[in-house]
Write a structure and sequence with these properties.
Elements (H helix, E strand, L loop, with lengths): L32 H36 L4 H44 L8
Length: 124
């Protein structure tokens, strides 16, 4: 059976089996590099969503506990403040990721523009 022609990060050959008409597995196929980048970007963006869902669940449980009299109100207030700090940190993390993604996309566009225009610079 044919194996992938790519290499692992340690330099050893990839051991994945590929189809007869393929030379590379999904992880090493140069033609799928952009698809892998997009998928990784989506996965990175989903992490904050999971964190926010978890925080919302915890806040809801804490509120239910306070209303039922099972959770001390002052402890719940402090925990709520701390969770709000986490929410703000997640928001900042999202903004940083968005900016990094935009910078990467702009750099790629500039690179493509330079290739198309033979290296002439359009931006000041």
């Amino acid at each position: 059976m044919p194996r992938c022609g790519g290499s692992k990060p340690n330099g050893s050959p990839c051991e994945r089996i590929v189809g007869a008409s393929q030379g590379y597995c999904y992880a090493h196929d140069p033609g799928r590099a952009e698809e892998r980048r997009r998928n990784a970007s989506r996965a990175a963006r989903s992490k904050p969503s999971r964190e926010l869902s978890d925080i919302k669940r915890r806040l809801s449980e804490m509120a239910d506990g306070v209303l039922a009299g099972n959770v001390n109100r002052s402890s719940a207030a402090v925990a709520g403040q701390l969770l709000n700090t986490v929410i703000r940190a997640v928001g900042v993390e999202l903004k940083v990721r968005e900016q990094q993604d935009l910078i990467e996309r702009m750099e790629e566009l500039e690179r493509l523009l330079e290739q198309k225009d033979g290296g002439r610079q359009r931006w000041g």
